[in-house]
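Good morning C.,

I know you're traveling, so I'll keep this short. The sequence:
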Amino acid sequence: MGEDTIILTKKIASILLAGTLLAGLPGGAFAKPEKKVADLAVLGDSLAAGWTPYGKKGPGYGEFLKARFEQSQYKGDLNNHGFPGYDSSQLLNDVLTNTDVIQSIEDAEVIVMDIGANDLLRALSSKNPGVIQGALFGVNENLNRILKTIDELNPDVDVYVMGYYNPFPYLQEEQQASLMPLLENLNQTIEKASEDNGDTYVPTEKIIAKHYEEYLPNPADIHLSEEGYKIVAKEFWKAIDDNLK
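The tokens, ready to paste straight into the viewer:
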């Protein structure tokens, strides 16, 4: 073995030894980056629960949002407390008394939610303007209490509240004309309560309106398709990602 070969062999051995030592050190050059923790809690009605346009339970925006966290190197639990048919008073009761919901709120880094549509839908069946206005007032009162209670349970959690899309895009124009102002009032109520409590409002009306046939494929049902839930999760993620930067 020549002198040049011996020198080269020693250099290679030194490099390999240095790499082995570095890999064994905490935070060494070859150590994998530690994943950040983000436990996610989902609260709300059938949209939070992931109800499909054809009467079945599926993955909702919470599940698709969890996948986005994982793609961005976050680890953590998903606790979905969405319940079909829930209105704002029922969610408020859960936040105040349901021990599982309270524990999830206390443990979460991020909470996403939607609530209020069922309050309005039930009031619409009365066709009484006073009852409808009372429902919107109730959403305002209950949502403010929900968000305030969440803040008391976990002052460090980031909360994102969804605004609603038009659930009846297939109705006649004259029916749309009477319904859309009510939807706008509901969303304004949700947005103001969110802002008043230092939380983030996430609108969905415009993004869903781009592809009603794909996102709301059943004209007889108000629930989103899987692609619809994915696009809502994307809207949540854009707001969350802006706050993480």
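Safe travels,
E.
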